[in-house]
Amino acid sequence: MVSVAYYLGRALLVWTVVAAVAAALRRKERQRLDIALFMSAMLVSGNVWAFLPFSSALKLGLVTLLPWFTLRLVAHFRRVPSALSWASAVLPLILAIFQLAFGGRTLSPVTYVLSQGYLALLFCFSAAMMALEGKRSVGLKARRLFFAAIGTGTFGLTSLMVVLVHLSGYRGRADYPIVIYLDTVSLICYYLAFNTPRGLTTRWRRAEQATHLSLSAEREPEERGARAGDDLIEGADRCVGGSLTFVAYRSPGQAGPLAIRAASDPILVGRRIPAGPGLITRVLDTGVAELGTPLDCEPEVANALAGNGIAVLAAPIVADSMSWGVVLVVHRRGALFPHDDLSVLAQLGRNAAVALDHAALVVERRERARRESQRRLRELESRVGPMLDSIKDYAMLVLDDAGVVAAWHLGAQHLFGHSREQITRQSGATLFDLTPEAFGEWLREATRNGFAEREGPCQRFDGQTFTGITTIRPLESDPEAPPGFAVVTRDITEQRHLEERLRQSQKMQAIGQLAGGVAHDFNNLLTAILGYADWLEQDLHGDPRVEQVKEIQQAAERAADLTRRLLAFSRKQMVQPTRINVGQLVGDMLPMLRRLIGERIPIVDETMPLTAAVLGDRTQVEQIVFNLVLNARDAMPHGGVMTIRTGDVWCDGAGPVRGLFGPYVQLEVIDTGIGMNEETRRRAFEPFFTTKDVGSGTGLGLATVYGIVQQMKGAVEIESEPGQGATFRLFFPYASAPAVASLAETDLALRGRETVLIVEDDPTLRPYLVQVLECNGYRVIAAGDSDAALSMVEAFSEPIDLVISDVLMPGKTGPELVRELLRSRPGIPALFISGHAEALLPRMSEQVADRQLLQKPFSSTDLLARVRQILAAA
Question: Which residues lie closer than 8 Å to 324 by C-beta, 6 or more apart?
Answer without folding.
Answer: 249, 250, 317, 318, 352, 353, 356
